[in-house]
Amino acid sequence: MKSQGQHWCSSSDKNCKVSFREKLLIIDSNLGVQDVENLKFLCIGLVPNKKLEKSSSASDVFEHLLAEDLLSEDDPFFLAELLYIIRQKKLLQHLNYTKEEVERLLPTRQRVSLFRNLLYELSEGIDSENLKDMIFLLKDSLPKTEMTSLSFLAFLEKQGKIDEDNLTCLEDLCTTVVPKLLRNIEKYKREKAVQIVTPPVDKEAESYQGEEELVSQTDVKTFLEALPQESWQNKHAGSNGNRATNGAPSLVSRGMQGASANTLNSETSTKRATVYRMNRNHRGLCVIVNNHSFTSLKDRQGTHKDAEILSHVFQWLGFTVHIHNNVTKVEMEEVLQRQKCNPAHADGDCFVFCILTHGRFGAVYSSDEALIPIREIMSHFTALQCPRLAEKPKLFFIQACQGEEIQPSVSIEADALNPEKAPTSLQDSIPAEADFLLGLATVPGYVSFRHVEEGSWYIQSLCNHLKKLVPRHEDILSILTAVNDDVSRRVDKQGTKKQMPQPAFTLRKKLVFPVPLDALSL
């Protein structure tokens, strides 16, 4: 392979058109055995370990990157990043990059995690004598095979002795053997601490066919103020004059403007973002709280349809699903405490929590009609409360309703003019940290609908679009934009009631579910 690559023309020869695969082969021909091991190490967490273990050449690794959509002729940046890290910067020319261009793009396009970069840096700083000393200190727990500094660190990671949040073992080794490397670890901790970014959106509320949840314009403002100030100002400036009115056209117009803005912001930001890891031992847990019967509130007919379709779709996506029916306040706290401490989160990629119930003003009702703030629910899963879910996406989908009958549009307007009646503020609905997504069924101040036999517009649309768009490799925000469009086009039997969902999120990366092997029939 190497002899073939050396005979091909260089990238500077204007008369020679080299195909992308030929360029990859040229790069392969210029990489040695250790370079290949370095590439394999840097791809851990992005390419399945079994595939990496079987790779004996750089071209094998490139093939896996192509298969995982991490590398393409249109976007070879990830390979450029890898070459830059392993100090093969001369080879960047074959991908039409310069060292300066890669350095400029890395802050927004970096895919190799801070943790993996740290381990690679440490491996370069551990010489043969240092390695012998470290192996001596851990002799009883190491296999009797020859190790490089990189394979030594990889083994510690594989055995669970170190991870991105636990560097105690590394710190102890470096303190004893090579103290200068502690500076690398401290630098990693600082970078990790400031890595959290919080792109914003706005919030919503909900109701159903025969009942409604109303959220005032003031609640919208206070809720948005809980998000980063610059982001709220941009949103607020774009919504001036869009006060709720009696007519459905105003809702559709305002909702569609919001959907367009969200789509544009999503497309702009996700092009720069990396992708959440989705290749751990299992996809994660999906908890569904399904309240049908209440003490005095009307039964939520059709909610079983929502619970069923949510269960089917998230099982199809690889989640372990737990359904809890007619949950009281005490039982809800038990569910939250149990899930907060669930050890299964450690090996999961993601966490999903769905609530189907009545609700009001940024809160949901238990089956015994206690009002529980959404923020209180979500706060159980912050990095501090649930460290096993730190830096992993946490998705909350809430179909919550209020009242017994559909209120006339004048009631929506009146509620917007009397925000002091709101028992709790939407400001408290989402934790002020990264990696959360909250999907409520409608824009604040408006109703959402549930068919008594077929289920709610929002949940049914969400599940159908997951089924349709996950196989197309669409990310979750693109899918929710499609849900917005679908639900906004629906009307009730009288043709007067409409609905517009919107997501609120602090995701830092694109969330793309891997395509399930089996087809799903709903």
TrEMBL record:
InterPro entries, per the entry: CASP10_DED2 (IPR035701), Caspase-like_dom_sf (IPR029030), Caspase_cys_AS (IPR033139), Caspase_his_AS (IPR016129), DEATH-like_dom_sf (IPR011029), DED_dom (IPR001875), Pept_C14_caspase (IPR011600), Pept_C14_p10 (IPR002138)
Assigned GO CC terms: cytoplasm
Region named Disordered: 231-271
Annotated GO MF terms: cysteine-type endopeptidase activity
Annotated keywords: Apoptosis, Hydrolase, Protease, Repeat, Thiol protease, Zymogen
Segments forming domain Caspase family p20: 282-405
Biased composition (Polar residues): 231-248, 259-271
Gene3D superfamilies in UniProt: 3.40.50.1460, Death Domain, Fas
Limits of the DED domain: 19-97, 114-187
An annotated GO BP: protein maturation
Record domain Caspase family p10: where: 430-513
Assigned protein family: Belongs to the peptidase C14A family.
Name of the protein in question: CASP10 isoform 1
Record organism: Pan troglodytes (Chimpanzee)
Lineage of the organism: Eukaryota, Metazoa, Chordata, Craniata, Vertebrata
